[in-house]
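Researcher: Please translate sequence to structure tokens.
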Amino acid sequence: MAALSHIDHWIFDLDNTLYPAHSALFPQIDRRMGLYIQRLLNVDPIEAHRIQKELYHSHGMTLPGLMALHNVDPHDFLANVHDVDIDVLRPHPELGDLIARLPGRKYIFTNADAPYARRVLTARGLDGLFEDMFDIHQMQHRPKPDLRSYHSLCERHAIDPARAIFFEDSVHNLQPAKTLGMTTAWINHSDDHEGSGECPEFVDH
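Model: Translation complete:
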């Protein structure tokens, strides 16, 4: 911990960071996004999947694309796609103990919304450990890795980036944090779409 002795702000991503990437949770969300797009645009599953991935790559996340192109209500969309079986997650008391022992203030920084994030934290036994969560609505629907949302997080909570560390499974979301001066920690799932095993220069741990 000596290398982190200057840290007093601990920032955590949620999905695939505070629970294992192999949990059967994110596939449920992905499937419900597809169903939502099918209903919204009256398309078949294959076309819905193509649209979903195209919006993800062009807007950083499916939701901002649907808002920009189809005037989708973000609260309605998120309520639908997050209506998942959270019981696939299990409590992790050891993780909770470790987070509780971290010296300083702790935050959730997630492209999801707060109601869903609270359900995840409760299922993992991690509720009550974080001072606040900065969700997609507080980001004004500008998802990570939009640098403006990192600035907004720091401004809202008076975070000095030089005294903060950010834990995240999507490696490209760490680059803006490093740009601001944060210490970065990559939760590298070697079997996922980003798991090349190679550590970019903007990753510290």
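Researcher: Any highlights?
Model: The mean pLDDT is 93.
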